[in-house]
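Narrative of activities, Objective 1.

The group set out to show that a structural description can be obtained from nothing but a protein's sequence at a throughput compatible with the screening campaign. Below is one input-output pair from the validation batch, recorded exactly as produced.
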Amino acid sequence: MLGDHPDRLRGVWIDSSNPANTAANTSAVEQALRSLDLCVVVDVAMTETARLAHYVLPASSQYEKTEFTLFNFEFPTNYFHVRAGVLPPLAGTLPEPEIYTRLARAMGYLPGDNALAPLREAAKRSRPEFAAAFRAFIGENPSTAAVAPLVLYHTLGQTLPDGTAAAAPLWNAALLCARRSPQAVRRAIGAPDDVPDTQLGDLLFDAIVSARQGTAVTHHAYDEVWSLIGHPDRKIRLAVPGMLEWLAQLDPGTAGAPKEFPFMLAAGQRRMFNANQIFRDPAWRRDDPDGALLINSADLGELGASDGDWIAIESAAGRLVARCKRDDSMRKGQLALPHGYGQSHPAPDGERLTNGPRINLLTESGNRDPIAGTPYHKHVAVRLSRVAADEAAIYQTRSERIHRRAAAG
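Output recorded for this entry:
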């Protein structure tokens, strides 16, 4: 985005993501987003990224629309849960299928209701008739293949119970699942032996969308597990040549912190309380409200600071100020800041204040794993310093203001 190449990235569409807070090197990300000719954000909250966008398309929350959960914690039985909305959407918001429907129609990608009406009528009559009509429609209108989920949403989706039209694209997924693992699907949904395999996909889809609780979608026998491995020899590849070459070159002598940044920070520690970028109200954070920097008592003493003081943390990429907390479970020279803070939120007087440390002010996208390209969030070299009394007072006042309502509640 910030390069001078004539074909550099000039427009970005961001859906349900907050890179201005969650991507490495926050300052550079913010600068890049501001440089765009067009930035559009679809989200349920006015995130840090949304505040930098040219257009914000507000989506309905998870309680106001159809969503799903896929979970396999009870393997060999796997479950899928279609969750219907339980509240009407807030005024001015739309579920994502409606947002993308309007855009696709405005751009000429999605046919109008008159063209989709025959498909909708076929879906009301029978699933086999709809399947034949849908295949014929895509064959006659190949350009609509790119928006097939929206076609299903506006046709098959209109026949689904409890307003779960957004689950219609799962139909094709259910067909593919039944085709790949017919016996596992048959066991899960309890299909009689006389039901042909060709009908299992529709039965699975109907079971998923008609239930308001998690539905078993496959039940595997353990000797079938090997069939799920994609390699022809059904063996798991543990040796990754590039990774092994990199591991052989590691030198423990170079793993320590550089002299100018003598501490190693885990930027994004998971603690008893974790939240994603949707939970922005400080009232949710009854414990650790400021997202404290955990530090060994010896390091705290050498710094001349006390438990609860405001400390400046500086890396090669940036600087932030956080409240410190003595924690002797941390090794000397090791620090930790929590995941899930740094969101802006209105104080009682309406001013937007940042709640907790924006940890990616400290991370650097170039300091990353050479295999996966993932920045080293858990290994950030930093230095610490006490902040002047006037700066500490500013942070203390901001903390009190943003948490006043939480304390009152």
